[in-house]
Amino acid sequence: MNGTHFQAYAFWFAACLMLYTYAGYPLWMYLRSRLHPRPQRQGSTLPTVSIILAVHNGAALLRQKVAHLLALDYPQDRMEIHIVSDGSTDGTDDILKEFQDPRVKCFRCSAHCGKAAALNIGMQGASGEILLFLDIRPWIESRALQLLISNFDDPRVGCVTGDLVLREDGHNAGARAVGGLYWRYEQWIRNCEAKVDSPLGVYGGFYAIRRKLASTLPEGTILDDMLQPLSVIRQGYRSVLDLRARVYDIWPKSLRGEFHRKVRTLAGNFQLLQLAPWLLSRQNRLRFELISHKLMRLLVPILLVILLMSSALLATHSFFYMVAFATQFVFYLLAALGAGRGIPLLTRIAAPASAFCMLNAAVVVGFYKFLFTRGPLWKIWTSGTASSFATDGQEGADRNATMLSLRLRDQLQARGMTR
Questions:
Q1: CA nearest 242: which of 148, 320, 168, 323?
Q2: Global pTM?
């Protein structure tokens, strides 16, 4: 095999793997969901629910959050709230002392130990048949909890998540591409997976599991919203998605802020394989889906380099490869323009390319962080600046995130979407 043939094989190998990752697998799951759907049964039973809320420096939102939860459309005598302050330093612990309602139970960690440790504390002593995991920032529609819980009437269901609706609040074009186009694409795939069997992950700010199936999270776990549902599935149950149970949240306002968030999430994907090697064994009935949906995407940065280099080397031998190289060059140029502050119309056009490149750059940085971070991996989280909200409810809501969350709450209240 001469060099030209090898380069051509490399080009088509990379192209086919990328096509399968972004189109082939989603199309296969869509066809399966249409031909062999497995709808879950929904009933009217109202089991007891223990809400687990881990908070780090959430003083600005905590009072409103507890009032919001206590006003949800669910029998109050069948609900309890476990709030865990994870080493808060902003007055959160003082606010916890104010809660006198017997349904609200508060716990404090003297040091900041991370979300997984806080959730483990919250699960201890929980008496509800169902555990509901929440973040402090998202706001829930009034009937969403009851709709979510109704899925547990099906004895095959062990985990349920709702429909996350992302709200815009001054986001730039690149961030809107991630929170809009990419999120709708990702949710569509998850919905197809849920109709066939189970989605690989759930939205970590609003999901529920049967208490008897709950697993203690390994210390330092980043992706509890993947490990916990997959552990439930490992025990022979399903994880399902209920689009009727809506929850509203915001996401980073800039592409830079979204990049920081994705680095942490993607580092968590590598960590997940380290913490739970059984995911790649026969113990995981979703092994094929995990490889196709999650792990193949971790290889895309390598495939992109192979495509670019092989087409560049072949460009002088074939008009087709010359066009392929030129197309990639223009695509990356658009991505660079979209990431900056240029002409608004051009920035909007280039936003999808910028978002795609950002997501794949985050894979590389996430892998680097996974390999070389000293100390707990969850500490790689970087809070957003005043212009790029990049934090979550558990790892420290900065001032900008808090203001956006309060604004989101006010908008939803004004529209009658929440109480």
A1: 148
A2: 0.86
